[in-house]
Specification:
Length: 294
């Protein structure tokens, strides 16, 4: 963290020096005949030399700082928009990052005297890019665009594909970041998402089970039916009514009752724990009576 902070501080300071130098040139404060003036006025021959290297360092620092400021602004604005707006702005932020790096590389190469037009049209370079896996990269980029603009997923949605299930934290140009149930972050290539289940588009049905003694089944059912409306009123994250679905399992002396309710997927686990506690409290007198009889 300390090294990262120093690197950030260094790039910002270098960018500030570059911007200050440019302003001074524009305002006529630096003579074109001075060392800094010659660098910023590009009064030197293209090629790899101390002047081109200094110019490349300054422009790189300035452009990197501008990109970081623009991305920070977009991310800050995205927090005030809906989930769809946040998703799109974060994708734009990632695009700016990658495109900025690519353009900066080609610009610095031109400063060093490289013919970038020839470089771009070179069949050998294009073959090298394809050989390095551009096909999969393009697939990831296209998959990310389709995911966003078709409205399949948004930041904050809970999605499941294959054996993976998590909450979407960020959709980038190539990858999507998921927050897993273990609170770990999983980074997945967009093209690998493929067929998925979006659990956040419609309310999910959560279920829980409560075991009661067979002899107490009628009384337990009556108590639960009376308690369910009160439990519902205590938590407004429950959608609709809580339902007593019926008996799901019968053992020798025990019946298992199922309780069901609708909620948002991200609230499922917390609401199951809440309802289980409240309903067990409502059945506590029956359980105490049964314990006395035993």
């Amino acid at each position: 963290a300390a090294v990262s902070g120093l690197n950030s501080f260094g790039s910002v300071m270098l960018a500030a020096v570059g911007l200050l130098s440019l302003l001074m040139v524009l305002l006529g404060e630096i003579s074109p005949q001075s060392l800094i003036g010659r660098i910023l006025h590009r009064q030197w021959n293209r090629g790899f030399n101390v002047f081109s290297l200094s110019y490349a360092i300054i422009t790189t620092a300035v452009l990197f700082s501008a990109i970081r400021l623009l991305r920070a602004f977009l991310i800050r604005v995205s927090t005030h928009l809906g989930s769809r707006g946040e998703t799109i702005l974060r994708l734009i932020s990632s695009l700016i990052h990658y495109l900025g790096i690519i353009l900066l590389i080609f610009y610095d190469l031109s400063v060093f005297g490289v013919n970038t037009a020839t470089l771009l049209t070179s069949a050998g370079i294009l073959s090298l890019i394809v050989g390095m896996g551009a096909n999969s990269t393009i697939s990831d980029i296209l998959a990310g665009l389709f995911l966003i603009f078709e409205g399949n997923i948004r930041v904050g949605d809970t999605i499941q594909f294959g054996n993976t299930c998590g909450v979407v934290q960020q959709i980038g140009v190539r990858t999507t970041r998921l927050l897993m149930e273990s609170q770990d972050i999983k980074v997945v290539n967009n093209a690998k998402i493929g067929e998925m289940i979006n659990k956040s588009i419609n309310p999910s049905t959560a279920t829980m089970e409560i075991a009661v003694q067979a002899a107490n089944l009628p009384e337990a059912e009556n108590k639960l039916r009376r308690a369910l409306p009160g439990v519902r009123k205590k938590n407004n994250r429950i959608i609709g009514d809580i339902r007593l679905a019926g008996v799901t399992k019968i053992e020798k002396d025990t019946y298992t009752l199922r309780i069901a309710f609708d909620c948002l997927e991200e609230d499922r686990e917390a609401l199951i724990l809440f309802c289980r506690r409240e309903l067990h409290l409502s059945l506590h007198p029956i359980q105490q009576e049964q314990a006395k009889q035993d």
